[in-house]
Design goal:
The protein is mainly β. The protein contains 1 helix and 11 strands. Strands 2, 4, 5, 6, 9, 10 and 11 form a 7-stranded mixed β-sheet that branches. It has a 4-stranded antiparallel β-sheet with strand order 1-3-8-7, with no helix packed on it. A hairpin with a 4-residue loop joins strand 7 and strand 8. The N and C termini lie far apart (40 Å). The relative contact order is 0.31.
């Protein structure tokens, strides 16, 4: 069974930075596209950024382009999301998800991913 664990969330002031990590256990990430998603209270879960298994393809939501960077280290079996210039509207629970499909990166939607972590809270507030 695929297990994903997110970490790195917390409280940060507007304009600050956080780095989220997604660690896999029980399987290697080498064959999986990974997506980061977020869900704010009362809103749908939305795609933030996705990366292909080799890291050569990435996709970003327009709302985070230029501020967030997704990367992966398959040797360490982790995928990271560097979040800079954070805004209050970035506040949400952030989830990582895995799927063995290149199409999942292009779509970067929750319907394209089948295995999910439990999420980590990110709060941007002064």
């Amino acid at each position: 069974q695929l297990q994903l664990v997110e970490s790195g969330g917390g409280l940060v002031q507007p304009g600050g930075s956080l780095r989220l990590s997604c660690a896999a256990s029980g399987f290697t990430l080498d064959y999986y596209a990974i997506g980061w998603f977020r869900q704010a209270p009362g809103k749908e879960r939305e795609g933030v950024s996705c990366i292909s298994n080799s890291g050569d393809m990435t996709n970003y939501a327009d709302t985070v382009k230029g501020r967030f960077t997704i990367s992966r280290d398959n040797a360490k079996n982790t995928v990271s999301l560097q979040m800079n210039s954070l805004k209050p509207e970035d506040t949400a629970v952030y989830y990582c998800a895995a799927e063995a499909s290149t199409w999942s990166v292009k779509a970067c939607s929750k319907e394209a991913f089948g295995s999910w972590g439990q999420g980590t809270q990110v709060t941007v507030a002064s």
